[in-house]
Design goal:
The structure is a homodimer. By secondary structure, the first copy, chain A, is an alpha/beta fold. Chain A is 51% helix and 13% strand. The radius of gyration of chain A is 21 Å and the shape is globular. In chain A, helix 6 links the parallel strand 7 and strand 8. At the A-B interface, helix 7, helix 8, helix 9, helix 10 and helix 11 of A face helix 7, helix 8, helix 9, helix 10 and helix 11 of B.
Chain lengths: 290, 290
């Protein structure tokens, strides 16, 4: 990869892809930016966007000559898109993605990236985003101050890819941590997919209890925070849950065990036990505040 | 009650009590403000506070001659405190509280406020607060724009008490809704105590999975929002959960049913079912945003 002004190619230009284009351009991490996205409307949006130099009608064209290719499409479409672009990649191309699950994607990449003639792949997961998806909500500061998880090794093996990719995300203002794809998925099941599932469960329960107007009129700010993530795109999250099915099932089961524990303490009116349970959670939560 | 500059008495001057003193003074809803709070340190804080005219060593003294008395102590202490102050109340005194549960408190008040010689009681629950409790975090704008739930009837029956109390909370910038004590507790079990329980369950689960530093380094903003309420005072929330035990147990059971439903859809890898479940929650959550 060239040291300066590399050619960045973005495949998928929703909230994450478009924000990446803005941020990389603003911070001088990309010279040329090419883009492809599935919908014609999205491609027209790219053509008007100041961060985008060229829009391609097909992903194969978009990646031609690119130094860094970032796949910003829903997780279930990433393996297919990797297979599709692979023959068209420049040998120096470093390919990554922003998917919320990593094991299946990295396993697919290992099957596809087997020679040194068509670039390298290394999975990324920037912990940034929002309930409001789409290019219209993109912003260049989406990544600054957030964490990015990298899931080495690169395929085919190449230490430079990890160092370059780490420098790229750090250049966007992110803190970078590396862990294996499997560790990543287990971790995300517990700290992201499970919280999302609980927020959705709570909202599905509330939807059965009253009209949204009634809920909104009679509730405090705590409920809004607790359930915020449940407003996320159901299609996107169905894909994430399915990709990380085993780990999420296991997290849900462990969490259900905790629910039963709390229920038991409450049913027994065990004041000391209840307080101890709540204190354990409060101690952890207070330690999470920046 | 006098039309202007009534004498307000606050019993308990933590986050809510002290914020009430500031807000009522700032908005001209109180002429004289007297206060009592359990700890000597808290009483010394009141003596220094510009919103407080006089601090009493005992609640019986604090309420002497007061037009409006507001109990801002943990829910489990409210019935005892009502019984203690009752003989000392002026006949025109309107008494209320800010407790998060209402059925037990209002039932206790109905047993205590039986004659017209010692004022009236009507329960309130301003949906305002925060994880950071104590007088040090008090602020005059804590109530503005929030909802306050009133739980009539007043005891002994007195239509003026409800009108006056409604005007008081509205004067602080709140939207006021009235519902029965039982409806209140069922509603709060579902929309506040259950979300708190789920956030605590999630945090207790995470505490078993890794050190807080590790969790903090590798998580996104979604987890922080989802779990924010779990940082609340464990002692305070143990009292709330116990006071509202039956309704919370029933909400936990219904929620567990939803958890099992989502788990079943995921185990069956039912994409359509999963997406429908998440969409139901997302629709409700999006409708809650102001």
């Amino acid at each position: 990869m060239k040291d300066t002004a590399p050619h960045l190619c973005l495949l998928g230009t929703g909230l994450l892809g478009a924000s990446l284009g803005m941020a990389a351009r603003e911070r001088g991490l990309a010279g040329r930016v090419t883009a492809w996205t599935r919908s014609a409307e999205g491609r027209a949006g790219c053509a008007r966007a100041p961060w985008c130099d060229a829009v391609a009608a097909h992903p194969e064209e978009a990646v031609a000559g690119a130094d860094r290719v970032i796949l910003c499409v829903p997780v279930e479409h990433i393996p297919g898109l990797l297979a599709r672009i692979h023959p068209h990649l420049h040998p120096r191309a470093q390919v990554t993605d922003v998917g919320s699950t990593k094991e299946a994607i990295c396993a697919a990449a290992a099957r596809i990236f087997t020679d040194r003639d068509h670039g390298t792949f290394l999975g990324s997961h920037p912990l940034a985003g929002g309930e409001r998806t789409g290019m219209a909500h993109a912003r260049p500061d989406l990544f600054a101050g957030r964490t990015c998880l990298l899931t080495p090794p690169a395929c085919p093996a190449d230490p430079r890819t990890e160092a370059d990719l780490r420098a790229f995300w750090e250049g966007l203002g992110m803190r970078v941590h590396a862990l294996s794809p499997r560790e990543h998925d287990t971790w995300m099941a517990r700290t992201s997919h499970l919280p999302h599932a609980l927020a959705s469960i709570l909202c599905a329960f509330l939807a059965a209890e009253g009209a949204p107007q009634e809920v909104a009129a009679r509730t405090g700010p705590g409920l809004l925070d607790t359930t915020r993530v449940a407003a996320g795109d159901p299609v996107l999250w169905t894909g994430i849950f399915r990709e990380n099915r085993e780990a999420l099932l296991s997290a849900l089961d462990a969490c259900r065990g905790r629910l039963d524990e709390l229920r038991g303490l409450l049913a027994a009116d065990d004041a000391e036990g209840l307080c101890g349970f709540l204190r354990k959670g409060a101690d952890l939560r207070r330690a999470l505040d920046p």
